[in-house]
Amino acid sequence: MRMPGRLGARLRALTGDRVRMAAGAVLFASALCTAALLAGAGGNAAQAFFPLPKATVQGMEPSATPAPGPLSGLIIAVDAGHGGYDGGAVGRVSGTPEKTLNLDVALRTARLLAAQGAQVVLTRTGDYALCDEDPPIRRKLQDMQRRAAIIMGGEADVVLSIHMNEYAGRSESGPQIFYREGCPAGRLLAGAVQGAMIDVLRPGTKRSALGGDYYILTLGVPSALVECGFLSNREEEALLLTGDYRQRVAQAIAEGVLRWAALPGERPAALAAVDRGGEN
Ligand SMILES: [Zn+2]
Q1: How far is the CA of 233 from the centre of ligand 1 (A)?
Q2: φ, ψ for residue 169 (rounded to 5)?
Q3: How far is the centre of ligand 1, averaged over its atoms, from the C-alpha of 8 (Å)?
Q4: Are strands 210-211 and 223-230 parallel, antiparallel or unpaired?
């Protein structure tokens, strides 16, 4: 996204506006967690700032003014997938909705990125979708468009969308990262995050980052959709239900971003945003 964004980020950094929490919603149709894409609920467009509401912090200490670090000057949007009426994938054993775990991992990731100097924009900070309940039509599109508006309004340089996977077969496991096909910067980002998740989490199945056509990846910014693990796999579900493992997941995601940001040379340009205003 635009050059002024980086300069703007640095200027904002000087003003202490480091970590922005926005309530809203973005979208996606992840192939494997699409089942829950189409239902709708409460809109919430307020913006919140650190410190996070205690209810959503879950034991993590907020840091209002992150120290300068390797990610200083970067604005990173962290999108917790689903929310509200849209629970996403469901834990096969526990019945835990993906939306809850996504938010927890997103908040942990946001904290870690902020600790490395990044300014973080969150698309949601609680259990809600970013759409109006009435009329209940086109809720998912509205939710996605509002998430996109938060991300673009925040002049994000990078987008990370956090999800949990599911699949009909129970044996599938392991983190899976997606990027927008044809976006070199997104591919590098996704590859770095995928590699870090393998190194940190040591999953039994070592996947490669894949191209995918997801709305959240089409905003013209280097983007990665992070499927943290499979809720359809008994063992991985059990891991994802523990705070310790979710913290490791967040650490892996942050490590991936650090690796990406440290890549030598100019980062490939992102593709232009895709106009999807007419989608439903
Ligand atoms: Zn999902």
Answers
A1: 15
A2: -80, 130
A3: 31
A4: unpaired
Q: Which residues of 210-235 are buried (b: 16+ CB within 10 A; e: fewer)?
A: bebebbbbbbbbbbbbbbbbbbbbee
Q: From its phi and psi, is residue 73 left (phi > 0), alpha (psi between -120 and 50) or beta?
A: left
Using the mean position of ligand 1's atoms as its centre, give its distance from the Cα of residue 30 in Å.
Answer: 6
Q: 227 CA distance to ligand 1 centroid (A)?
A: 7
Q: Where in the chain are the domains?
A: 3-261
Please tell me the distance between residue 90's alpha carbon and the centre of ligand 1 in angstroms: 10
Q: Are 162 and 193 in contact (CB under 8 A)?
A: no
Residue percentage of the chain with pLDDT more than 90: 65
Assigned fold of 3-261: Aminopeptidase (3.40.630)
In tens, the pLDDT along 138-178 reads 888 999 999 999 999 999 999 999 999 999 999 999 999 99
How far does residue 122's CA lie from ligand 1's centre (Å)?
16
Average pLDDT over residues 76-98: 96
Instruction: With beta carbons less than 8 A apart as the criterion, state whether 51 and 182 touch.
Output: no
**Cβ proximity of 180 and 223 under 8 Å:** yes
Taking the centre of ligand 1 as the mean of its atom positions, its distance from the CA of residue 151, in whole angstroms, is 18
